[in-house]
User: Fold these one by one.
Assistant:
Number 1:
Amino acid sequence: MALRIGIVWVLLLFAACAPRVQEAGPARFSPALTDTHYLTADGLKLKVRRHVAANPAAVIVALHGFNDYRAAFDDAGRWWSENNITVYAYDQRGFGSAPMRGIWPGDERLVADAGTMIDLVRDRHPGLPIYLLGVSMGGAVALAAAAEDPPVAADGIILVAPAVWGWSSLNPVYRGALWLAAHTVPGNKMSGQGLGIVASDNLAMLRALGQDPLVIKQTRTDAVYGLVELMERAYQSAGHVKLPSLLLYGARDELIPKGPVDVVAAQLPPPRRTAIYSDGYHMLLRDLQAEIVWRDIAAWAQDPAAPLPSGYEKRDLRAGLQPLP
């Protein structure tokens, strides 16, 4: 009897400390897009940053990574807009200037928001190809959205260092430790400092991020748990993607291991294109060699069958790191 009571108390403790997820409100509004905000069906106003091309040949909806926000695409967006591509970047729920900053929004809501944003952008730009681009966490959202039935109404997805390091790829010790932490101390925060991970070779950019108040520096344990759930969903979604894809990865990425990226790249249905940048880190769009990546994305967005200018395309992501001859 004492053991049974003890088990009940443990279960109640875990229930009381369950990972926190934002609760979406009822759909009370018609989603809308202005030049500065994205209004969701449940009434959230998510800030938008646009980079408008004078004569666009394509449009990109850009999804930022974990703890980042819309400004992640400022440099790339300006360059793309000067090269015939209009860009929309918005703060995803829980990040940047969005309400309930730091609280995990749930993968379903992130995926739904991306789909609605694509619809709104397509209404603004009839006749132009619309691509969903995701960086890191944003890449996981794009993967999941492209595997929906029906998929997000984009003409293709661009996956930049996609976050696909889910439960299947974590070793049992990490899995157990994260589950326990998320269910006992979900509100505890971690900074990631001292891990020795180099996210980019652009040190000036990294220092600026450290001073940017809209970049989250202290992450809740349950938000990390939610991210891993999303990454697992993305990992499992790869074989069910229903859109053309371009996957880009840096050979020096120290955040997302190459193993799960290999699996995702191999499972993506055709037409798929992949490239590895031998000097690329995790933050490919903001590395010192970022313009090489920007050019590849611009080329693919305007002609998905054209060669990538960098020459770093791979027939198989597991191949060597030399450009194709």
Number 2:
Amino acid sequence: MQPELQQWISITGRLLGTLFYFEPNSEQAQKVLSFFNQNDWAEQLGVEPSAKINQLLASQTDLAEQHQAMFIGPNTLIAPPWGSVYLDPESVIFGNSLLELRAFLRQHQIEFSLNLAYDEPEDHIGLMLLLSAYLAENNPELLNTFLSKHFFTWSKRYLQLASEQTEYPFYQGLALLTQQVLQVWQEQLLLIVPNVTFYR
């Protein structure tokens, strides 16, 4: 992998993953939000500028409420952020695909922890993006397998659903941007993603 691509995957994975995973008022998310509030963030990030995505990412009114509705509840989550919901026949969290991911992490002795107080399944969209960044930095030889077998198998389905959530414009924009970024990852890494059945 070229160092420039390795660095770009690390940067984009960390920025996007932080916004999907952390609550908007957290210190981690606030730092990233300040980056996206710059007029030239797309140029700095090296992505194709999009007026629609710019407008949606600027929709930060009631951002905590948007995050609550997208990731926590209490209403049913239209776009659940966990991979096993899409890949497991019973659409449950902590499904078989998560167990396979955990086996992959154990096999390669990857200890990835954000030292958080709550126990989130590792196949959360935000954690998967952060883990992609971690692998790009620390275990780049494992990145292609991780992406093709454990992440890209379901990420497009999740991002499709999330990008349709017009009631939550910031996260709709975040999903659209992530679609664009992950497409470049796949093209640059020449990844072949197996076809799977979605159960949601």
